[in-house]
Design goal:
Layout (H helix, E strand, L loop, with lengths): L2 E4 L1 H5 L2 H12 L3 E6 L8 H10 L6 E3 L6 H4 L4 E6 L2 H10 L4 E4 L6 H8 L13
Length: about 130
């Protein structure tokens, strides 16, 4: 199973990234949401987004403030996309084989995700972003 991970705030909460995640679910990728959010707070918009995308609710992981790399380590994620440079730096440094991709101010985020999947951008034409 090809497994990928998305941060939620300022990443999967962006329409074009949500659309890409939905496309990956339809293509039978195992899509996860990995967030530093805490479970004790209202996360209804996160769950609503997951349902819209078709992401299995068991594929949502709340780190409760712990660095994401600790969860992602040794789980075979192809990429993790996030807006937090610290999280991305730690993932890139600590996890071999997982590509850390920035969603913040990065117009090429989608191309980098597709490249990490070993696919071509033309495979995703019609899904702008």
């Amino acid at each position: 199973m090809k497994r990928v991970s998305f941060d939620f705030d300022s990443t999967l909460s962006i329409n074009t990234i949500e659309s890409f995640a939905t496309d990956l679910v339809k293509r039978n990728f195992e899509v996860w949401i990995v967030t530093t959010r805490h479970t004790k707070y209202d996360n209804s918009e996160l769950f609503e987004t997951a349902v819209r995308c078709g992401i299995d609710l068991k594929n949502i992981y709340f780190t409760n403030g712990v660095d994401k790399w600790e969860f992602l380590l040794d789980k075979g994620f192809i990429f993790h996309i996030d807006d937090d440079w610290f999280e991305l730096k730690e993932i890139q440094k600590r996890i071999k084989g997982t590509v850390a991709i920035s969603s913040f101010g990065n117009p090429k985020w989608k191309h980098k995700c597709i490249k990490a999947l070993g696919m071509k951008v033309t495979d995703f034409e019609g899904n702008k972003g």
